[in-house]
Amino acid sequence: MDYTIVAVVIFVVALLVVGGAFLIRPRRPQAPDERARAGEREEGGAHTAVAEREEAEEPGDAAGPVTVAEPPTVPPPAPPIETPPPSAGRLVRLRARLARSQSVFGQGLLGLLSRDTLDDDAWDEIEDTLITADVGVTSATQIVQSLRTKVKVLGTRSPEEARTLLREELLAQINPDLERGVRTEPHGDRPAVLMIVGVNGTGKTTTSGKLARVLVGDGRSVVLGAADTFRAAAADQLETWGGRVGAPVVRKDEGADPASVAFDAVSRGIEDGVDAVIIDTAGRLHTKTGLMDELGKVKRVVEKKSQVDEVLLVLDATTGQNGLRQARVFAEVVNITGIVLTKLDGTAKGGIIIQVQRELGVPVKLVGLGEGPDDLAPFDPEAFVDAILGEG
């Protein structure tokens, strides 16, 4: 027997047994943590892509809502500063408006004086017309007596002569020689101080604002004092007027002491070196003693800082005789230096100018002839008489 062949066969069989055992060896099972790590590696790419897509779609902190910054608030631009017209010639420019309101007064008198016969009844009618226009009984009587004397001396008279006679008499009663300038010149380092006083509803705050325009139009600098602390709207209104011409307004909370506001306004005027300080006071009934005493206090407190150059009483021309009673009481409390007659365009009773001046010895210095911002004018007696008589 050939042992060599047998050995070869045995060797081959052994190799086949060993190789088959290696090929059919079972795979070792994975531990749970290994399977988890394998899953994370398989899904990691997908998770990363989703996260990147969400971050691109929803930027910001996922813990709360996204805050969008609002654009900054831009304040509205301040209104431009106006340049009012100068006071010179204002009443002349407003003559047509004045003539319309006073035509009943002037033209009625001219018609009566131009009659062919002037008997007692005619003269009584002339006197009644004057009284109706609030000239006052005393002044009306004087005018009629003077006219009757001149008519007798002249004899016959034409309409032109009647106009001349009436013009002379009205001017004499208005007294063109009275000092009507509003004192607005500073004295030293102190500004001129003007107090505006009057009863409720006469237009004091509006007059204060319009007067500031008159002064600015004349080249003067102004500070406004809102001493009407009973009405918050009064201070707001005054600020509107001041803002239009660049005049600062000193004000305090509603209910503050008016004398304190007036004092601070004058102090501000001194600090700023302005020409004039206009103090708007609260409206008060001339029959209320407490309110009138308070007005006197305002004036006394202001005078600790600077002298008061003007105390201008605002009268409504439509109130007639009641306006005269108001004027008397105010004059007793604060020594009125001048009259501002408002709403003169809304009444035919311009004769109140004659009566107020006669009773108080105080001149009408300013007249209001409308609602426009520049309808306050220095009173010119000749322009006034010419307007109501229809002269150019």
UniProtKB/TrEMBL annotation:
Sequence ranges of Low complexity compositional bias: 61-71
SRP54-type proteins GTP-binding domain: residues covered: 363-376
The enzyme's E.C. designation: 3.6.5.4
Function: Involved in targeting and insertion of nascent membrane proteins into the cytoplasmic membrane. Acts as a receptor for the complex formed by the signal recognition particle (SRP) and the ribosome-nascent chain (RNC).
Entry's localization field: Cell membrane; Cytoplasm
Family: Belongs to the GTP-binding SRP family. FtsY subfamily.
Topological type in the membrane: Peripheral membrane protein
Biased composition (Basic and acidic residues): 30-53
Residues engaged in binding GTP: 198-205, 280-284, 342-345
Pfam families: SRP54, SRP54_N
Binding partners and assembly: Part of the signal recognition particle protein translocation system, which is composed of SRP and FtsY.
Organismal lineage: Bacteria, Bacillati, Actinomycetota, Actinomycetes, Streptosporangiales
GO molecular function, one term: signal recognition particle binding
Swiss-Prot/TrEMBL keywords: Cell membrane, Cytoplasm, GTP-binding, Hydrolase, Membrane, Nucleotide-binding, Receptor, Transmembrane, Transmembrane helix
TM stretches of this protein: 6-24
Gene field: ftsY
UniProt name for this protein: Signal recognition particle receptor FtsY
GO biological process: SRP-dependent cotranslational protein targeting to membrane
Any GO CC annotation of this UniProt entry: cytoplasm
Compositionally biased residues, Pro residues: 72-87
Domain of life: Bacteria
Residue ranges, annotated region (Disordered): 29-88
Catalytic activity: GTP + H2O = GDP + phosphate + H(+)
Enzyme class per UniProt: hydrolase
